[in-house]
Amino acid sequence: MDLTTVYDCMSSNLGHFSVPTGVLLAGYITGSGGVPWTNDQWNHNPAALRIDQSPIDTPADETADILDVENAAATLASIPQWVHGAWGSYHASLRPGQRTPTIYMSRNTVTPVVNTLIAAGITSGVNIWLAAPMTSAMAADQVTHASGPFPIIGVQYQFLPDHDVSLFSTDWLKNVSGKPVAPPSGPGSQGGWHFCGKCKCLFFFAEESTSHCAAGGAHDGSKSHDYMLVFLS
Ligand SMILES: [Zn+2]
User: Lower Cβ count inside 10 Å, N or C end of the chain?
Assistant: First the structure.
């Protein structure tokens, strides 16, 4: 299984550590003080994972990739509404690039979260981002061998002063909403091309999260029309 390293951090820590090529960032869309990322930070990191840590669910929160369930963050009671809302947002492509609903939790919160999901009639379609100190090899093993109705698609295994380190399933990262329409039948054309708002180039939107924009980070096709290219051979 292909894995991707993710660094998550508060807004106030972004820029205070180096980010190697190929590492994806994760930040907060909610919170107070130095926690939530600024619009400028999101614009510079369009493929970054979006974490909602608010105990109060709003439609904007439901465009996040992750619900952070822990003390002083989102509550168990807020999970079912967020999951339904996040799936609705994903299917409607309210935020192209959104990943499928995932809940962040520590190991001792897994059972309460799973019990909450099942009590609400949610028996699949939710992933787990597990926070637990371990080696990177152990984290890779957890993600690679994940199974069951609520698979572990990421493990946050290293906790540093200004950011944390996780390994994520690359397949989960790439499975984003707003995917290009299927190419129309017949030879000679391919749909799913978007203009990047940063470098003004056309690129294949399905590969946005792993693309390399000349303006830095990944291309941003979120504000583009969907283009079809004609090919000759
Ligand atoms: Zn670009």
Answer: C
Ligand 1 center–CA 175 separation, angstroms = 20
108-124 pLDDT, tens digit per residue, is: 999 999 999 999 999 99
pTM beyond 0.70: yes
Please tell me the predicted confidence (pLDDT) of residue 177.
Answer: 93
Residue 109 corresponds to which amino acid? T
Angle among Cα 197, 48, 111 to the nearest 5 degrees reads 150
CATH classification code of 3-174: 3.20.20
Domain ranges of the chain: 3-174, 189-230
Distance 178 CA to ligand 1 centre (A): 18
